[in-house]
Amino acid sequence: MLLTAEQVESYNQQGYLFMESAIPKNILNKLNAEIPAVFAEDSPRRVFEKDNRTIRSIYAPHFTNKTFDQLKSYSRLLNPVMQLLNNEVYLHQYKINVKAGLAGEMWNWHQDYVYWEKEDGIATPELINVSIYLDEVTEFNGPLAIIPGSHRLENMDTVISGSEAESGEAWQNHLSVDLKYTLDKPLLRKLVNAYDIVAPKGPAGSVLIFNPLVAHASAPNISPFDRKLLIMTYNAVNNLPQIELTRPDFLAGRDFNALEVLEHEEWKEELLEQHGSVF
C-alpha cells in the first residue's frame, strides 16, 4: 500500500497524517491479545506512572514478542514510511504508551527529535513516527494533541527540565511525566495562535503518522478506559547516530539494517500457521 499524492502533500504541510481504521481488525485483535504477556514482563523496559503501580509505557515489545516484531515490517506501514522518507529505514524506537483509565498521566508539550538529536546523535530529522490506536481514542482518554505545521519551524527552543535526576539512570526522565526537554508557554502561545491544535480521534486500528519535529502532547486520561497507543519510530539508513550510543538499546536501536517489507498476505499466512484461524 502506498499513499496518494494528496496524502503525501498533507503530511508534508501539516506534519501528520491520520488514517482511520487502517489496520485490519484481525491483526489488531492479535496485537491486543499479546498485550497481557508483554505487560507482565519484569524489565527496565516497563515504565510506571508516579504511583509506581500503573504502567505508563512498555519499550521494545518486539524484543520478546514475535507478533510485535513482525509488525515493524508490515507492508501497510513500512511502505508509506519509505515513501515519505524516500529511503530505506531501520527501527530506532518502539513503544506502547498505555494512558491507563483514570490513572494515565500527561505527556507535556515537546518535539521528539530533540531527544534523538541531543541524546542519540542523529544529525537530521529524517525520521517518522507511526502510531497505531490499540484502543478507541476519544476526547476524554488523552488523545495525542498536535500543532499542525509546527514541524516546519525545525528545532524550537526547548526548556530543560529542572527535575533531571541527580542519581539513577539519566534517561529515565526522557520517559516520565517530567520530561527533560519541553516547550514553554510563551512559545506554545505563538504556535497555537499561528497553527491551532488538533487531536485526531478514531476507532481502534486507526493509524497516525507524524513528523518528529511536530509539537505534540497529551492530557491525562479522565475516562475509565485505557488508551493504548503503539508508536514505532523509523530512521533513514543514511541518518545513523553520529555518537556512541549510551541510552539503552530499548530507547535507541542498534540494528541499523534496512527493514525488509513483510507483505500482508505473507504475514497473514504466517500468523495462520502460528495461531490458527485469526483471519
Characteristic terms for this protein:
alpha+beta, Jelly Rolls, three-stranded antiparallel β-sheet, seven-stranded antiparallel β-sheet, 25% helix, 279 residues
Describe this structure in words.
β2 (about 45-50) and β3 form a beta hairpin. The chain has about 280 residues and is α+β, with helices and mostly antiparallel strands. It is globular and about 55 Å long. Residues about 160-170 have low confidence and may be disordered. The protein has a single domain (about 5-275), classed as q2cbj1_9rhob like domain (Jelly Rolls), CATH 2.60.120.620. A seven-stranded antiparallel β-sheet has the order 1-10-6-12-4-3-2. The chain has a three-stranded antiparallel β-sheet with strand order 5-11-7, with no helix packed on it. A two-stranded antiparallel ribbon has the order 8-9. It has helices at about 5-15, 25-40, 65-70, 75-85, 115-120, 185-195, 265-275; strands spanning about 15-20, 45-50, 55-60, 90-95, 105-110, 125-135, 145, 160, 180, 205-210, 215-220, 230-235. The chain has seven helices and twelve strands.
Low-confidence stretches: 162-168
H/I helix tally:
7
CATH superfamily: q2cbj1_9rhob like domain
Number of domains: 1
Write the layout of secondary structure elements.
Blueprint: H1 5-14, E1 16-19, H2 25-39, E2 46-48, E3 55-59, H3 66-71, H4 75-85, E4 89-97, E5 107-110, H5 113-118, E6 127-133, E7 144-146, E8 159-160, E9 181-182, H6 185-195, E10 207-210, E11 216-218, E12 229-236, H7 264-275
Antiparallel strand pairs: 1-10, 2-3, 3-4, 4-12, 5-11, 6-10, 6-12, 7-11, 8-9
